[in-house]
Each structure stands twice: as structure tokens, then as C-alpha cells.
Amino acid sequence: MKQTYRTLVVALAVYTPCTAFATNGYQLIGVGAYQKSLGGAVTANPGSAMTAVTNPAGMARIGNRADFSMEAFMPEREAGFSATGGDTAESAVDIYGVPAIGWTAPVSEQNRDVYFGGGMYGTSGMGVDYAPTLMMAAHPDNGLPVYWDGYSNISFWQMAPTLAWNQNERLSLGVSLNIDYQSVAFRQRATQDTTSDGMGDTTVSNFDLGRSTSSFGFGLSLGMMYDLTESIDLGFAYKSRQEFSDLEYQLAQGDITDQSGNPLPAGTYKLDLDYPQQASLGIAYQATPALTVSADLKWIDWSDTMDKLAVEGPGVTVPMDPGWDDQTVYAVGLAYAVNNQLNLRAGYNYAKSPFGSEKVSSNLLLPAVVEHHYTIGGDYRFNQHWELAAHYMYAPEETFTAPDDDPIAPGAEIKLGETSFGLNVGYRF
């Protein structure tokens, strides 16, 4: 029994992935106030220069403009261990700033059917900061109380220089080069209370990649928009897998421990973390001169990048294996023009969590469990050049619980709820 207890402790600490993401997996449902306010249903209804990262063809449809966006993204996350006599950990980090900037304009006065633009976009990224928390109460068979703490900080940026053109009066095409940057730091450990003072003092296991490292990645996005009728627009977009160089960490001996809690050697450790390919179909219907209804269907290939993950070191492999499945995203948006200056919008976005309760123990710090997103927003045009847009998003809290017979973390819980608020300043040339 004592050995089983120790194995459970080490498995909890070592084989729990150490990053925290949210929304559609770890991808935001939209970039900027316009996209968020429509619930991400923008493949056939672009509206802002953020379309470079969702449908490049939209850059030829929105006119000459620049957009400057800032979003306050506010998740609430918990990891609970009551089933093993422990407590609940609440993340101390509860707000993240997500900036974005983009523009588009014709390549020349003589050729106003060909547009060039792009920008820098924060499309995902998050983190957690859990203080030492009782993970497992003392076991009757000489088991000692175990405490757990964890930290992560992830940033993902995407540049998207884009060329888009109107092939004819109905068809627009676009292509963007994705230049990606990600920065990742995370750390967690489990400690035992050997002095019975209510604090962990002896390290049982460690997984310390706390010194932030970064890598660059590349990919392509293709887009198309087609006017089926005067009131119905269709859109299609495809983004390739974003291939990153390995994240490299220079670790000391014992920064990572093995399954038995033994320190692994010092050296260079690498994590291969790419961004998944995805495709979307969209439709926009102008029901009346003032009301437009848009809808999107999107596929995200998480199983290709987030099913199996491992940190590779000098002669050793430490598996993380979050076991994510692909996601199908459904989005719908309503836009209503009150007058020539004021536009109101609302949206809904749904995607089933990329993992189920059977994978909770592998995703204690990957709480990507929110599924429903409700959004509102609008914009006000001050004159022919300047406009201000805003959005508010609410994703109700979801709770996933590991099975009682889970071999790693029986009965463990993860919780996630989200809100966000953003502003966008738009300028029309």
C-alpha cells in the first residue's frame, strides 16, 4: 500500500502537463472586439483587419483601414483534490492582456482590386499560478501529507503579412504567411510534510521548466469569399499546421524527476509544441438592410499536436500526453445597424471540450473545458475615419471530474470559467 501511495504521488506531479489554456482548446474564439462580438462567426463576414488570421480573403472586402485592439481576458481556474483528502487550488493570475493590430490597403491607386496588409495578433496564451496546496492527506499506512504547487505562462503571437485580391465582382481570394512566436515557462512540484507542520518540506517530484524559453514557427493561411447572391456571402479558410522549432530548456540535475522520484541528469531538454491545422466554412446572410446573420463551422486538428507530448532530455523522455481530440466549433452572430453610426452585435460559440473526464488527470493544468461562449458588442463611428468598438464575452464555468478508479488522480476536479472585455479603435483611410 505504501508503494502504491508513493507511485500515485509521483504520477500526479510528473505526468500532469504544465500549461493552461482555454476557450476553443487554447485558441481564442476571435481576435479583436468585432470578431468576439459575433462569437467568431466571421469567415464570411470579416469586418476588421483581424481577418488576416481568420480568412485572408476578407482583407480585400473591408476597405482601407487599420485596427488597434486590446482585450482583457479573465479566466477563473481551479484544481481540486477533495477525493484524496486534499484542498482546492485557485489560480492567483486572473487577468491577461491580449493586444492585436492590423491594417489593409490597395497596393496602388491604379490597382484597387489587390490589397496588402497584415499585422501582429495575439491569438492565444494563458497561465496559472497555484500556491502550495494539500493534494493528498496523510495515508494510514505511513503515508505523509503531500502538497502540490504549479506555475505556467504561455504567450502566442502571430504575424500575418497578407495578399488579397478581388478575382472578379463575386470572388475574392487571399493568402497570408504566418510568422509565429511562442514563449513558454512552467513549473510544478510535489512535496511531503515530514515535520507535521502543515507545509511540504521534502521534494517528492519536480518538473521545472520555469526559465522561460521561446521559439519561432511558420505556416500558411488560404482564404476565399464568394457572393452567392446579393444577400448571401460564402467564406472558406484553411490554416496549415504551424511548425515550430523545439523549445529548449537548460536544466540542472533534479529540475525534473523520473517516475520513481529520482533526479534526472542536467542538460538540454526539448519540447516540440506545434500549432494545429484548421479549416472553416462560413455564411453571411443580409436578412434586411439593417440585419446580417452569420454562421461558421470550424475544425481544429488538436489530435495532431496535443494528443502526445513529451519532454526529451539526455537519454530520457518525460511524457505529458494530454490526449486531446479534434474540435468542431459552431458559431453564429447577429449584426444590426441601428443607424449610419451605431452597430450592435451578439454571438454564440460552442465547441465540445477536446478531452473528457477520463483525461482529467492528464490535464490538471490544461483546463480547456469551457464549451459555451456568449458575446455582445458593437461599434460607433464618430466620422468617416474613426470608430470605436467594444465587446463582452461570458463563458460559464464548467467542471470535469476524474473517475474514482483513475490510476493517477482519482476524483480530481478541474474548473474553468471565463469573461473578457475588449476595445478596438478603427481608422478608415
From TrEMBL:
Point out the signal peptide segment. Answer: 1-22
One GO CC term on file: cell outer membrane
Membrane topology listed for this record? Multi-pass membrane protein
Keyword Protein biosynthesis part of the UniProt annotation: no
Main location per UniProt? Answer: membrane
- GO terms for MF: long-chain fatty acid transporting porin activity
Sorted keywords for this record are: Cell outer membrane, Membrane, Signal, Transmembrane, Transmembrane beta strand
Per UniProt, subcellular location reads as: Cell outer membrane
Assigned protein family: Belongs to the OmpP1/FadL family.
Name assigned to this protein: Long-chain fatty acid transport protein
